[in-house]
Amino acid sequence: MNEQERMTRRRFLKACGLGLAGLSLSGYMTYLFGGTSVKDVLKSTLGGTGADGFRALENFRINSVEPTPNVQLADYRLTVDGLVANPVTWSFAELKHALTEVEQVSDFHCVEGWGIKNVRWTGVKMRELIQQVRPMQTATHVTFYSLGGVYTESLSLAEAMEEETLLAYGIYGKDLPAPQGYPLRAIIPRMFGYKGAKWVYRIEFTDHQHLGYWERYGYNVDGVTAR
Ligand SMILES: Nc1nc2c(c(=O)[nH]1)N[C@H]1C(S)=C(S)[C@@H](COP(=O)(O)O)O[C@H]1N2
Ligand SMILES: [Mo]
């Protein structure tokens, strides 16, 4: 780890968990880096919240490594490019016109040990978007880029095609609050929250997997096991 990574790690630890009730530092490190399953994390810590400076929003803790970008919806564009036959750049209105709106109720869980049951998202299915842009034979992965300029995440094409993989713009029947990724965030319910980038403005199809932000600090690319 170089100095910058150490700083980031330290900031991360400070930001997201030293205050978690009932978790010792070593316990915390264990579940951060010790091969813990989603179920174990949820079992051990669901319901336990700490006075740790997170801003609660509908029981979410706003988790961001960058400040909330100031997005004017009129200026927003989503670009889908890379290894696709039909690249697109859509305004928000064009996106909603091109794809079918769906509602989906699913649980949300963060690797840090908090989770929320039955979150009601509104958005569009990645699967439908993928069918429209028509990936080339060589495309194996998709990378999500975030307007914050710092955060990226990626999925295999198969993961992106899963029934429940969403691009969400609403929550509980309202627009997504800005800190939660307005106007567009990725939701992959069976994976930890870090797999879903907030403020997505570009989706690139590639022939290899880009490591996501937290994956460079040791999180698993599969998004299901902590390590
Ligand atoms: N752009 C961006 N997306 C992000 C993150 C981030 O720091 N930046 N954090 C991820 C993590 S670790 C989690 S748990 C969720 C948190 O979502 P929330 O802020 O709505 O609770 O967003 C994910 N997407
Ligand atoms: Mo997270």
Automatic annotation (TrEMBL):
Keywords recorded for this protein, A-Z: Membrane, Transmembrane, Transmembrane helix
Domain Oxidoreductase molybdopterin-binding span(s) in chain numbering: 67-214
Positions of transmembrane segments: 12-34
InterPro entries: OxRdtase_Mopterin-bd_dom (IPR000572), OxRdtase_Mopterin-bd_sf (IPR036374), TAT_signal (IPR006311), TAT_signal_bac_arc (IPR019546)
Source organism, top-level taxon: Bacteria
One Pfam family hit: Oxidored_molyb
UniProt xrefs under NCBIfam families: TAT_signal_seq
Protein name: Oxidoreductase molybdopterin-binding domain-containing protein
Species annotation: Tumebacillus flagellatus
